[in-house]
Design goal:
Immunoglobulin-like, single chain, disordered N terminus, alpha+beta, 11 strands, about 220 residues, eleven-stranded mixed sheet
Length: about 220
């Protein structure tokens, strides 16, 4: 048995040697150089597969890339309250219409004061009301309005009573006007200020005065 095993091993080695010799001879005859190139780096797909394999096997050194962009911190100029006017471009003399002051705050606002200005010779303020911006907060708010006859100015102010402030969008003032006479008029925001609950001022931006054409 031992002799037979030795013979079998010897025959197997001879066969393997013959195959290797034939392959070397074929390469030499065809002029193909032997492959002594260094190992190629893994492709992106292979790397991804390796990461997936490591993740599935519970390897500790696995970092999975995310397609989501990193969260960006708002700059100081972006942490503000922007005010815009929602008003018609034209009306007729004698017609009633409403103008809304819209706010968009990227920082919690707990108190604000806004002055709406208009030409009293062309427009007459009939009704005023507070918007819904402060109603989004968790605390109650106190609202105040003041109008000086003949000046064409209405001041809207609001302050939360112990709240942390409101962040988001909504209306901060609504004015119902009546057009007195035909011609060119305008409505704008003369002054505006806002504050956080701790008293820090909030940067407020306002748009240009909104032109209004009054037809006969």
């Amino acid at each position: 048995m031992r002799v037979n095993l030795i013979v079998i091993v010897a025959v197997a080695c001879a066969i393997v040697g013959s195959v290797l010799y034939r392959q070397t001879a074929d390469d030499a005859g065809s002029g193909r150089p032997a492959d002594h190139s260094p190992t190629r780096p893994a492709s992106a797909s292979q790397s991804a597969a390796n990461v997936s394999l490591q993740a599935s096997t519970g390897s500790a050194d696995v970092s999975v890339a995310s397609d989501r962009p990193p969260l960006r911190t708002l700059t100081k100029s972006e942490r503000s309250m922007a005010l815009t006017l929602a008003a018609p471009e034209s009306v007729r003399a004698g017609e009633r219409f409403s103008v809304r002051v819209m706010a968009s705050a990227s920082v919690p606002v707990a108190r604000y004061a806004i002055t709406v200005s208009f030409d009293p010779s062309m427009l007459r303020a009939i009704n005023t009301s507070d918007g819904n911006f402060m109603e989004q907060g968790s605390a109650l708010a106190k609202f105040m309005q003041s109008t000086a006859d003949g000046t064409g100015e209405i001041v809207f102010s609001a302050e939360q009573d112990g709240g942390a402030g409101v962040e988001g969008s909504g209306s901060v003032a609504v004015v119902e006007f009546q057009a007195n006479a035909a011609g060119a008029a305008s409505i704008g925001l003369k002054a505006a200020e806002a504050f956080k609950a701790n008293g820090d001022a909030v940067r407020v931006t306002t748009e240009e005065r909104r032109p209004l054409m009054i037809a006969r």
